[in-house]
Write a structure and sequence with these properties.
Blueprint (H helix, E strand, L loop, with lengths): L1 H14 L13 E5 L2 E23 L5 E6 L6 E2 L4 E5 L2 H36 L5 H34 L1 E3 L4 E3 L9 E2 L7 E16 H10 L14 E6 L7 E8 L9 E8 L11 E17 L4 E3 L2 E7 L5 E5 L1 E6 L2 E6 L7 E4 L11 E4 L12
Parallel strand pairs: 1-20
Antiparallel strand pairs: 1-19, 2-9, 2-13, 3-5, 3-8, 4-7, 5-6, 7-9, 9-12, 10-11, 10-13, 11-12, 13-18, 14-15, 15-16, 17-18
Amino acid sequence: MQGATALALLAGTALAPPVRAQGTPAAPPVTVATPLARQVAEWNEHTARIEPSARVEIRPRVSGQVMQVHFQDGALVRAGELLFTLDQRPFQIAVENARAEVARNEARLTLAEQQVQRYTPLVQQRFAPESEMDTRRSALREGQAGLAAARAALHQAELDLEFSEIRAPRPGRVSDRRVDAGNLVQQGTTLLTTLVALDPIYVSFDASETEYLRYARATRGGMRRGAGQADTVVQLRLLDEPDFRREGRMDFVDSGFDARSGTIRGRAVVPNPDLFLTPGSFARLRLFAGEAPALMVPDAAIMADQSGRMVLTVASDGTVSPRTVLLGPLVDGLRVVRSGLAPEDRVIIGGLHRARPGAHVTAELGRIGPGPMAAAD
């Protein structure tokens, strides 16, 4: 009987959970570490839209009939490359008429000069009245004015003939043709095609008032370029790219905030030598905001509830308490905490599922280092 009782006692001892001296369950273990404090380069990310650095609507500067189209739809063209040719025969006739008018006025001017030369000695010797000399001089000035007008008309006719060949005003990519050979086009009205400049290219985004004020306080002029201040650096990645491999610089910030959205429009210039960046597409842009001291924790240590983001900290007596935090960007695998944490706070980075606010835990010291960290469970 005593042996059975002893076996029962031994079995009960083996199956019972470990207890403290007070009879309460042992506190679950968690891994804690103080936030990593270091200087970090601050980048703010925005959704951006890619736009051409120039957009030109190609319209004719003279009216006429399209005789030939010299480009393929969507082709890359050089500055001055021929795009359309209008019927040049009416313009060539106008040039010939203008040249004939110049020759006629040159002949009239020559005659007027000869008349003045003949009458000058006659008037000096009083063989001809002074009024006749005035008439000859007036005819000379008329001839000079007529020749100048004829030459101006010739320049205009030659310019119209030149405008009958419609050329690309700058390098870029043309859209599809809007007219074909045989169509009549109207001066300054008919849209022939459009041309966009792709290198460099613009990237536009909207920044909130909070972000703009942060830039304005950090640097003179904010996102704008000030005297003696270098351009603000931006980095770009397309939606299917894993990292920010393209770099550019801020080019323009709007003069005021949009009253409806409370944002201000910014624009960066990004080199596009391979012409891969296409106008109208979206990208992720991050804007360099300078270097500043920051506290950093692993992204896995951050929790979310209805009030926002928070981390769990452990006090000296082992009590778990939540801290609401304001987060910044992800840097080297760690999340920047802008506010809500102190450098001496012990943040739970491992065993987070075993901790509850207000509960007691057993804190095991860990360490937060740069790069992704595998927290112990």
